[in-house]
Amino acid sequence: MSRPLVAQVNLSALRANLAKARECAADAQLLAVVKADAYGHGIKRVLPALAKADGLALLELDAAVALREQHYARRILLLEGFFSDHELPEIAARRLAVVVHHVQQIEMLEAATLPRPIEVFVKVNTGMNRLGFRPGEVHAIVDRLSQTASVAVLRLLTHLARAEEEDGLREQLEAFEEACQGLPYPRSLANSAGVIRYREVGGDYVRPGIMLYGSSPFPYDTAEMLGLTPVMTLKSAIIAIQDLKPNESVGYGGIYTAARAHRVGVIACGYADGYPRHAPNGTPVLVCGKKVRTAGRVSMDLMTVDLTDAPEATVGSPVVLWGEGLPVDDVAAAASTVGYQLLSAVAPRVPFVTTEVGKVDIEL
Ligand SMILES: *Cc1c(COP(=O)(O)O)cnc(C)c1O
To answer: What number does the ligand 1 atom closest to the CA of 79 have?
Structure first.
């Protein structure tokens, strides 16, 4: 038997989440965001489940090129555009669309001679203040790009900073509207939170990411409330059991001390697998389908849980770190982070398996 830790990817859940995003933004073209290797799920692995998307969005040029080599024929949008003029011939030849967010990128486009012109999404900074042109610059930028031979067509794009907050949309939507006034180009605004609030946000292209993977973009609405299903289940097994006596501690630093005698399960999973080291005592874990809590520091290869609430657990008992039965968002909240980080940080040493249907359990 090999080390029992495995990440199971449920493609039917991904299809269902994609259908949900579609339902929210029925009139828009849907670009499924697959950056960071599909939020840690593996682009190649999940691609069959994204067949109904109108295109993909990511920021890694090598991954975009690999998609074209796998004969992916629909739109691929590079969310940060290009970083150097050396990338432009490949981008043009591969028919990749780019975000243009900085004047240096425009200079590179103006200087380039390309095999064919490129589709450009002009990024408007409406308040995120990371990438993009100020609203007042947009008309001039669009004028300039529309006279550039390397530019095929133009679209307008912005990224929402607080779409998950009740009153987090208005300012950015107003700024975008004002910046784009009179410009007859298709628009793209919505991330997952914006897709779920599509009636308020609108736009011709939507860019859902996290919701496709079954994690909620909102702090208060759970994935289940939003009708989303977990795609990745990180599962393992108990590989040893210890009987702690009162006042004994477990693991590095002794951050957990047993107040009473109880059993501790040792799980094959640690921070070198992508589980967050900063998850405190009490972070939820499923053992034999029952919710138990971590006890002791997460180490490189192992973590430990209090088995009081899973008395039937033995060596070999199944463990879910997150996924089916334990939302990644619950684990993330306990560890003061977000589902995005946990999913995208699963380490290369963790083997992946793909299932087509939900609830199919693999033998450990
Ligand atoms: C990551 C990203 C998205 C997707 O965001 P989610 O919150 O995961 O839906 C959309 N647009 C841009 C520009 C992004 O970088």
So the answer is: 13
pTM of the entire predicted model: 0.96
Does residue 235 carry a catalytic annotation?
no
What pLDDT, in 10s, does the model give residues 71-113?
A: 999 999 999 999 999 999 999 999 999 999 999 999 999 999 9
311: exposed, middle or buried (Cβ count in 10 Å: 0-12, 13-18, 19+): exposed
Superfamily of 232-362 according to CATH: Lyase, Ornithine Decarboxylase; Chain A, domain 1 (2.40.37.10)
Residue 236 per-residue DSSP state = E
Catalytic residue check, 35: yes
The CATH label, of 3.90.550.10, 3.40.50.2000, 3.20.20.10, 3.30.70.980, for the domain at 26-207 is 3.20.20.10
